Amino acid sequence: MKGGAPRGRKTSSLGSTDPGTQRALRQDMTCTRKHDGGQMRRFARWGRVVLSVACAAVAASACDGRLSSGGEPAATDARTDASTTWLDAAPPELSTAPIPAPPAEPAAPPEPAAPPPEPAAPPPEPTPTPSPAPTTPSPAPTPAPRPAAAPTTLPACRHRGLLKYGLHPIASDHLRCIGVTADRISQTIGTAPASAGYHARDGYSGGVPYTAAVDIRTVGRTETQIRRLLGQLADHGFAAWYRKPGYDGWPASEAPHIHGVFVGCRMKAALQGQVRDFLIGRNGLSSHTTYRFYTWTAAQKRLLRTVYDRYN
Ligand SMILES: [Zn+2]
Ligand SMILES: [Zn+2]
Fold first, then answer.
1. CA of 82: how far to CAs of 62, 95, 246, in Å?
2. Which-ligand-closest: CA of 243?
3. The whole model's pTM is what?
C-alpha cells in the first residue's frame, strides 16, 4: 500500500514519488541548467555586440540625419563584422558633401517701414513787423510855392525868314515855332471888306511893310484843337479869337477863322482897341460882347498886356 509514504514527498517539485524517476528528473534538470547556462552566456555576448552597434548607429544618426535616412541602419544586424564595416565605411556623401551650416536663425521680420515723413509744414507767415514810426521830425512845412512869375517877355524863338509876306518878322518866328505853316495863313496885309481895315499896314520892319493882324485858317481843325491853338498863340504874343460863324458876335454869314493881333510891335489904333478889348474878355468887335469860346489865364493876359504896353 502506498499510503505509508509521506504525502509531502509525493507532492515534491519533481512531481513523482518514484525514487528512480526523481533521480532521473534531477539529473535531467541539472543537465538542462548546465546547457541553459552556456546558451545564456552566448546570448549575452551577442546582445552586448548588438547593443554596442545600435548605440553607435544612434550616435551617428544624431550627428547626421542623412545616415539614418540613407542606408538601412545596422542596429538590427547581428553580425559584428558587417556592422563594423558599415560604421567604418563613410558614406560617399560624407567625404564630399560639406556639412551644412546650421540653419540660420530666422531672419527677423523687417522692421516696418518708417511712416512717410509728415509733409513739411509751410513756413510760418512772416509776421509783419510794425514799421517803426518815423523818427524824423516832420519836415517843416514848406512855404507855398510862389506862383511862377508870369513871363513878361515872349519866348526866344529862332529867327528865320518871313513865314508870310506882310507879317512882322518877330510875329513870323512865333507863328512858325508853334507849328503854324504858311498855307494856314490866309491874310496878313489886306483890304478884305470883312476886316474893316484891321489888316491895313501898321508900319515897316527892315524896310518891309507889316501888319500886326493875321488870319489863320481853321478848316479841318476840331474845336479842341482850335482852343489849344488859341492858348499857344497867347503864349507867343498873340491876342487872338476864333471867329465862329453865329457865335461871339461873328456873323453867321462870314467864314470861320482865327483873327490874331501880335502885341510885340507897334500897331494902329484899330488893333490897339481890339487888344484892349481882349484884355478885358471881350470879342474885339464893334459889339464888344463877352467872348465865351475860350478863356485865357490871367498869366497869359498879363504877359500880353506887358508886351503890348512895351511897344504901344
Ligand atoms: Zn514863339
Ligand atoms: Zn483878321
1. 21, 21, 155
2. 2
3. 0.54
